[in-house]
Design brief:
By secondary structure, the chain is of the alpha/beta class. The protein has 19 helices and 13 strands. Strands 5, 6, 7, 8, 9, 10, 11, 12 and 13 form a 9-stranded mixed beta sheet that branches. Strands 2-3-1-4 form a 4-stranded antiparallel beta sheet. The relative contact order is 0.11. The N terminus is likely disordered.
Length: 529
């Protein structure tokens, strides 16, 4: 979901579009932080910052910016305790917080941190604050370890978010709030259509890149037409790097052998793919071989809110792989009773043209564009559409009175507040507001209500968010099922090695042994009314 703009503490900031990348490293970091407070996302300002610097300064600037964002709210509370009078000027507050990070977290030499930060205050035309900046930083420099302990004692989140997490996750609260202020590990998804996780780990070893294999097991009970449930399990393997690495250093990355994707995000495609395979097998087992409906030679699947395309690419990799994960492989299990799947139509939608372009670029690198799929002659037709998921109707240019059931499976990577990925995007804790939760849940509900009628009876919808707020997750699902009698929540079983069981679905928190981000998963089955 796009990050909503949040008003700064005062109205003295210049418009975001006036971001100027010149001056010292610290000045550029300060200006970047001001732009974020004025509504710009980290992803939109990080590259301009780094690209404006010499190579030797990029590492320090990156560490200074990201650490300041991760400790932002704790630093703000510390600053308030150090100042004799309230500091209302956001530029001054930001400058001091950048100085505090250097002393407390980055262990920059006292004289360098203080002198350069004072000079930065002058450079951004707040010379009147230099005495204050100097006094506060010198006070902290006398005993930085003491002030770090004070900073680390509590959370570094906005109070409204900390309160909500306390309500939702009281048992995990302390570990969770501390975990959210730490950097996240880098994970790789290996393209199973090209190589194995084990072989790619060996390739990484050859490049002197250390990585561990992380394996997650998923178990769930799929519905059958006989009103019983069949248990199924699957394994998802990924690689967790010991240290984050530039992608151009990864073996054959440009050739599409691997992708950067969080471990918990790697669960999505295998789950919906396995559910769809189970649907096909159950249908073939319960269909009279002499009936006209004994062979279903076409499948139509939807990836909604697909950008930047990681989960879509993963699903296409699974479909096109020459193993048991491929939907084409289902017919090989029992040629006499299994459906002969000869064509798979894949539709992916997202609501912004630049995001659609990101999908195309990612699929092109992975050799999964429509042209590549046609060349492979695997009968996969891919259609990428720029559309609003709250109104889009398959095959229609505008909203119709009734939606036609078209899809056998839907993967809905729903818009959310992204509170589960704060470790990777620490600007979220600045940009999000309490009001965003209600707006987001309404948007989620609109998308669900629009897409659900387009799912065929017997089909599956996998609802995914990267949020850790129950209002967007389990409570959203409970409300949806209450209003849709043909929606049944599929039970995840004890075989699951990830997440926390919820009334509906499972919740991953960014504190488990896999070290993945905060993700929520709920699998819904559509029954015949």
């Amino acid at each position: 979901m796009r990050q909503n703009s949040t008003a700064p503490r005062n109205n003295k900031l210049k418009p975001s579009s006036n971001l100027i990348m010149n001056g010292s490293v610290r000045v550029r970091v300060i200006r970047t932080l001001l732009a974020i407070q004025n509504g710009q996302s980290l992803s939109s300002v990080l590259d301009p910052l780094l690209n404006s610097l010499h190579d030797g300064d990029k590492g320090f600037a990156h560490a200074l910016l990201l650490t300041t964002l991760r400790q932002w709210h704790a630093l703000a509370r510390l600053l308030d305790s150090l100042a004799d009078n309230p500091i209302d000027e956001v530029e001054v507050r930001t400058t001091i917080q950048v100085g505090l990070v250097q002393l407390i977290y980055l262990e920059v030499a006292d004289h360098a941190a203080i002198h350069e930060t004072v000079e930065a205050a002058k450079e951004i035309e707040f010379a009147h604050s230099t005495g204050l900046v100097n006094a506060i930083l010198r006070k902290v420099a006398k005993n930085p370890s003491k002030f770090r302990k004070k900073c680390d004692k509590k959370h570094s989140l906005p109070n409204w978010l900390a309160y909500q997490l306390k309500q939702d996750w009281s048992e995990q609260y302390d570990e969770l709030t501390q975990g959210l202020r730490q950097p996240a590990p880098m994970f790789l998804r290996v393209n199973s259509a090209v190589t194995s996780v084990e072989d790619y780990q060996h390739a990484l070893d050859g490049a002197e890149i250390d990585a561990d294999i992380v394996e997650l097991t998923t178990g769930f009970k799929v519905a059958s037409s006989s009103e019983s449930a069949i248990s199924t399990t699957l394994s998802t393997k990924g690689l967790r790097l010991h240290q984050s690495t530039a992608v151009n250093a990864l073996p054959d990355f440009a050739l599409g052998t691997a992708s950067v994707q969080d471990m918990h995000a790697q669960l999505a495609a295998p789950i919906i793919n396995k559910a769809l395979m189970a649907k096909l097998i159950a249908e073939s087992a319960n269909t009279d071989s002499d009936s006209d409906e004994s062979n279903n030679d076409e499948l139509h699947i939807l990836d909604a809110c697909a950008a930047p395309g990681g989960k879509l690419a993963h699903w296409l990799e699974l479909i096109s792989a020459n193993d048991e994960s491929s939907l084409f492989h289902v017919k090989q299990d029992n040629a006499e009773t299994s459906p002969a799947i000869t064509d798979i139509k894949v539709t992916a939608i997202d609501n912004e043209a630049p995001r659609i372009e990101r999908i195309r670029e990612n699929l092109q690198r992975l050799n999964l564009s429509q042209h590549n799929l046609q060349q492979a002659d695997n009968s996969i037709a891919l259609n990428i559409v720029c559309a609003d998921a709250t109104r889009w109707q398959h095959g229609k240019n505008k909203k119709a009175e009734t939606n036609e059931p078209v899809f056998d499976a839907i993967l809905l990577d729903s818009p959310c507040t992204a509170t589960g990925v704060i470790r990777r995007h620490p600007d979220i804790s600045i940009l999000r507001t309490e009001e965003d939760i209600e707006q987001t849940t309404l948007l989620q509900a609109d998308i669900l209500h629009n897409l659900w009628p387009q799912l065929k009876a017997g089909g599956y919808l996998l609802y995914v968010t990267c949020s850790i707020l129950k209002q967007e997750n389990v409570e959203q699902m409970q409300d949806f099922i209450t209003h849709h009698n043909d929606a049944v929540a599929i039970e995840f079983t004890e075989e699951c090695s990830w997440g926390i069981e919820q009334a509906i679905g499972r919740q991953c928190l960014p504190i488990d042994s896999a070290s993945g981000d905060g993700f929520y998963y709920a699998l819904l089955h559509k029954t015949a009314e």
